[in-house]
């Protein structure tokens, strides 16, 4: 163990990162939002899906690349060129390495928080919290296990780095077309309820929920790889989305008295 890795250690580290293997237990529920909301929050490289569908989920993971962590996610269905998939509008994760590697390598909008999933017979409950606020709550009732299944899906994440000067981006954004290969041993389908709450830093309460669809409880494993990535031109067009979705609003943090605009009386 050292602060400087050997050639052999680097080979093993990079193999682990390239395969992105995890186990997962997840409670998720689909919901219908609006085309107007999707168009407002989807970056310009994405086209709208056929139906304005989103997915809320809370989950627990154990990964080969960054250990154990919890997730609370809001995913939006979208299209990129000929590919159909999702992009994660909200991604709240426990642990520093899960947040760090996801942001720096893939460009995910990861922020630190907690999530829990509870299953009691046919009923399940899950929630996600950040900064003391419970943002996502899912309750659902499920049927029996449908047995093993496998699937592939694309998730699109925009990797963008703020410029060292504080103005603009360091380089043009990169779109990572991530392929998620899932192999499930448990899949249960049911119906449930979804509650989204919000704060100034995490405005999930502004997401329109028109109706709630199918709920899922799943256990299994997944791998996350990047078979395709593309440079996106016109980085300035992505700045409103980068600072609106991948970071907290820096204006809202409590500032030292000397930096506050309102002067105190003498």
Automatic annotation (TrEMBL):
Spell out the molecular function terms from Gene Ontology.
Answer: lyase activity
InterPro entries assigned to the protein according to its UniProt record, in alphabetical order: Acetoacetate_decarboxylase, ADC_dom_sf
Source taxon at top rank = Bacteria
- Protein name per its UniProtKB record: Acetoacetate decarboxylase family protein
